[in-house]
Write a structure and sequence with these properties.
The protein has helices spanning about 1-35, 45-55, 60-65, 70-90. It has one domain (about 1-90). By secondary structure, the chain is mostly helical. It starts with a helix and ends with a helix. Helix content is about 80%, strand content about 0%. The radius of gyration is 19 Å and the shape is elongated. The longest helix is centred in the N-terminal third of the chain and has 34 residues, at about 1-35.
Length: about 90
């Protein structure tokens, strides 16, 4: 039992360390997005969402990084995808 308890404790510690690392990476990503120059102003929320989505970040994680709700981010993603479809139709 002692070995099993030790393994459980290690798993808990690894999980906590992983959560803390993810939290810090989210902060770094958020700061980097704010540093990207955009004609003398910060990137809009939609542009930040577009960048993170293009990098393969899941909507739930985008919400965590940007400090918004998942439903808000999903709404932004729907708008981004509709714009993309509209732009593709105009090009044809």
């Amino acid at each position: 039992m002692n070995k099993e308890n030790h393994e459980n404790q290690l798993n808990k510690e690894l999980l906590e360390a992983s959560k803390e690392t993810n939290k810090r990476l989210g902060v770094v990503a958020s700061l980097l997005l704010k540093m990207i120059p955009k004609e003398g102003s910060n990137l809009s929320l939609k542009e930040q969402v577009r960048i993170l989505d293009s990098l393969g970040v899941r909507p739930r994680d985008i919400a965590d990084i940007l400090g918004r709700t998942s439903s808000h981010i999903n709404k932004e993603l729907v708008g981004i995808r509709k714009e993309k479809i509209k732009n593709n139709e105009q090009e044809e």
